[in-house]
Design brief:
217 residues; lipid transport; 7 strands; alpha+beta; endoplasmic reticulum; SMP_LBD; single chain; seven-stranded antiparallel sheet
Length: 217
Amino acid sequence: MLLVQKARYIPSRPSLNTAPSVAAAALPNDHITLKTYYDVIHHPPESTDWLNVLLAQVILQYRQDASINNRMSCALDSVFNSGVRPSFVGPIHVTELNLGQEFPIFSRARIRPSDEAGSTRAEIDFEYSDQVTLGIETQLILNWPKQAFAVLPVSLVLSVVRFSGTLTIELINPPETTTKPKIPLERYIAISSYSDFILDLQIKVPNMWKEQEEQEE
């Protein structure tokens, strides 16, 4: 018996995927946009085909590494078990890893005024439809009324079917503080997504009890 659950996550907050009003705030860094001949208002979105090709090569290399001696699964096992786990969770083991066959597609790159004064941000649409799967198994440990009183095996297979939205990249000023830091804080690059992204998930919960009974028979 195999339980399959499909989930789609679509945030209910209003989309921010609209260009801010230029009339409300002057264009940031005018000297940069002028010297780079970029019209923030009228410049059409640009192709990112070159970026798609480069990323595809990187992803393909990771997929090849994952198929050699389960290198990627062993690395994930080490990551999952190297940190501090809750006392009620046993060791976590990767049982299935599939990095898919398709590649993410980025498109419509453009520069827009940022919400932060004196800055701009890059916006890039992305679409990724594939079947990226990660399966894990572990144990839930019941520590009452005594330590390790009962153990419940847990197995889960999670697949990302679709992920799409708009990626934003911008330079962010450090937050203001009441006290002067010993080391001056510098601007940093923030990469995020607008809240109207779409994330389709597929969750499978194998019947471990039935599999155990078949093995015993």
